[in-house]
Amino acid sequence: MNPVSLPPSLDQLPAYATYLLDHRLQEATAENLRLLRAHQVPLLSLFAHLPEAELFELVQKGLREFLMQIQERRLWEGALGNLARWQRNELEEVGQEQIQVKDMVLINSLRRQVLFLFIPDYTPDSRHAMALVRELESFYAQLDQHALAVYVDIQQTELRRERDQFASLIENSVDGILAYDRELRITAWNRVMEERNNIRRHDILGKKIFDVFPSYEETPEGRAFMRVLAGEKVVISQAAYHTRAGFYEAFMVPLYHEDGRVRGGLSIIHDITEARHLRHALEEANRELRQSNEELLRTEAQLREMNQELERHVERRTSDLQASEEELRQTMDNLLDIHHKLQESEHFLNSVIDQSPVSTWIADATGTQIRVNEAYLKLFRLDDPLHGVGKYNLLKDETLIGQPFYKDIQAVFTEGKVATFALDYNLSEGQHLQVPGQTSTLSLVTTIFPIRDTDGNVTHAVVKHEDVTHQKKAEQALKASEEQLRLITDALPVLITYVDRDGRYRFNNRAYETWFGVSRQEIQGKHVRDVIGEAAYAKTQPAMARVLGGEAFSFEAELEYRAAGTRFVAIDFVPHWRDQAVQGYYALITDITSQKKTEKALETALAETRRNMEALKRVNAELDSFVYAASHDLRSPITNLEGLLSALQRRLGERLQPTERELLNMMAHSLGKLLRTIDDLTEIVRVERESDETPEPLLLAEVLDEVKEDLSPMLTELNGHLDVDFQVTHLHYGRKVLRSVFYNLLSNALKYRSPERPPVIRVQTFRQGNDVHMLFRDNGLGIRQDQVDKIFMLFKRLHTHVEGTGVGLYMIKRLLENRGDRIEVESTLGEGTTFRLIFQPHPNGVPSLSGQGGGLE
Question: Which residues are in coiled coils (predicted)?
């Protein structure tokens, strides 16, 4: 609360208050209630529900307490206490926002009329009556000034709180936020924008967007700014940055004046670089997986064909052997002929083995290798066809002896069974066959089947090697690819899944466990509806139908998951094609709840700001009403009183006693002082309105010359000197505002001059960083250090020997602070005072400073 003058002395009023309490309380209450209703005091509507008797008692209680405070000489403390409780919002009956300035002015004015009404009945002595009037006028004049100061402080505190709240919301947003005016000057630039663009806020505020980012001007993104200024909401999706690597999405909305005109725009920039990279990585992994599957299928088909061919060869050989044996039994007499046919059969068998594309070799009954085919030599990379013939023994191979299938190999020779086993052969380590100079490893499936003689004894064994090296490598690559894909997808904070045509999960990353509280194994094979719940499934089912129809699809939705709760999500569906048919689809689901909450909070804050602006507009209107009421209700009676006093002085003339003439002069002086107070209040409102004028480029010397011309008579009379040094020559500002600032500071320097020397005033401007500093330095009376902080208070005067009301410096401070600028003061008693005005770039995009060195920038 702003300090006020000392409380008025109450010398005559206590006895008058006793009279009213003892003799006229009922009448005074009735008159007070009548005046409240006649003037339609807004606060009275809060008690409209009370019966007449209760309302009368309530008014009488307030009047009685008021009169008792006068009687006990604590009226001033009680009034200040009520104002302090109003300012702290501690009133019991009503809230702070329910009491307006008009209520206070009217209530005080009507209660004063009630007190005036009974003065003639209380005393016939005119001097006594005038003393009562002076005490009442003095009390209410100071009370009205203090009430206005409290009201102004309340409104300023609320406005600062709203501004700080809005600035905090923008600064703490997780997305980049950029605001601009109709001239595309940047008015807001939050921390995220600083980090992404490596441009500090104070380096960019007030500059035009395309001056800072010229590469955007002739692009769709650049033209989107103009669409927003035309009143259109714009959404930019999947756009690449022009000044750095990465991608973003932008949500752009217009900002409006109270009258509906577009005053600028707001852009929320959401970075999607990481999500896009992850999506591309997933698509690339799927492509590699499909290629591996296709290669595996081709290899499997080739192996199947080779196996079928081998089986056909074996069947033909078996059939030939059976035919030979039968012919031998039937034609024992023709041994030579049979022998010849056996040689032909052996030749045929060797031919089959040699021409077989499958690696094949023959062992004798002891397991020793006796013959190999070309496919065998090629498989083991051997140049010498006799490399292992007669040397290598299958049953004596140390590597095979330790294997669990070794007994199956022995059974081939002892029991005539067929053995099949898989083994990796490192050609450099002597496993199975040692091949000089070879370092590779073969993965083989080996099949061994016996050859019997006519007595059923095993005479030979055929060993067939099926090379599955490529197939195994493909399986290993597929497994590694799946593992890599699993690691990548598990590390992502998004849901990644594959769903087949029946709507069942076939792949889920680890995020599903976090969202739904169940393991991936439990989700595997379940229907989508059973996992996400009926509500979420109903919203996403149409999109699932579209992707199963072959359409890649992306959308955002608010979904109510059974276990994960309600979330805003961004969903990307990609169909999985195979054999010209959709087999299922891949899904990437990102939680954007925090982003949506930020957007909603921002919209709420913007709406709240607009409501606060409307409330502030209503407050200003009420302040105008107060000034009008004060001018209308106070100026006319006071002017009439001045006229009556003047007529009384003329009529009485020389008949007036000196004390009576002094009394009339005191009354005239008080009335004049009251009129000046009313004029000052009117001036405050006028200057507040002028602070909203449109800024324009101003030549400082030109505005100063206008003020100097107005003050020329005083300068000449006082032999004053004005020294000007404008290093910054131009300022972008309101002409009337700047003229008021110059006039008040120069006239104060002349009024509060030192009687010991002619006044010298120095006006100087210079640039400091991004700000412009303006100094007004005089050699006047100066101020004590303990009083420096009080000179900007409303109605506060530190020098009483010069006429004034203590309004000028208060208005200057308000004018500057309303535009985001400030004023500081330094003073030494007896030496002079220096006022420092600091103009800086404003958040509304209109910079205070516009030129230096004699030209506009």
Answer: 272-327
**Model pTM score:** 0.32
Plot region of 336 (φ>0 → left; ψ -120 to 50 → alpha; else → beta): alpha
Which residue bears the tokens 């770039």? 841
Position 436 in a domain: yes
- Among candidate residues 282, 301, 294, the one with its CA nearest the CA of residue 478: 294
Q: Per-residue b/e over 742-775, b at no fewer than 16 CB within 10 Å? A: bbbbbbbbbbbbeeeeebbbbbbbeeeeeebbbe
Does residue 488 sit within a domain? Answer: no
Model pLDDT, residue 818: 79
pLDDT tier, 857 (very low <50, low <70, confident <90, very high otherwise): very low
Least Cα distance to 178 among 230, 240, 231, 221 occurs for: 221
Backbone φ and ψ of 186, nearest 5°: -75, 125
Structure tokens at 354: 């040699």
Q: What percent of the chain has pLDDT over 90?
A: 13
Q: Is residue 332 part of a domain?
A: no
Listing DSSP states for 631-645 in one string gives IIIIIHHHHHHHHHH
- Per the DSSP assignment, residues forming a β-bridge with 13 are none
Strand ranges of the sheet holding 359-364, from the earlier edge strand across to the other edge:
369-372, 359-364, 458-467, 441-452, 419-426
Q: What is the mean pLDDT of residues 192-196?
A: 86
669/794 Cα distance (integer angstroms): 21
Distance of alpha carbon 624 from alpha carbon 630, whole angstroms = 10
HSE-up (13 A, CA, CB side) for residue 167: 9
Which of the listed residues 150, 171, 192 is the one where a domain comes to its end?
A: 171
Give the structural domain span for 545.
493-591
Sheet holding 855-856, edge to edge: 696-699, 730-733, 849-852, 855-856
CA-CA distances (angstroms) from residue 16 to 109, 135, 467, 490, 667?
Answer: 18, 11, 124, 88, 20
- DSSP-assigned letter for residue 7: P
Measure CA of the first residue to CA of the last residue in the chain; give whole Å. 42
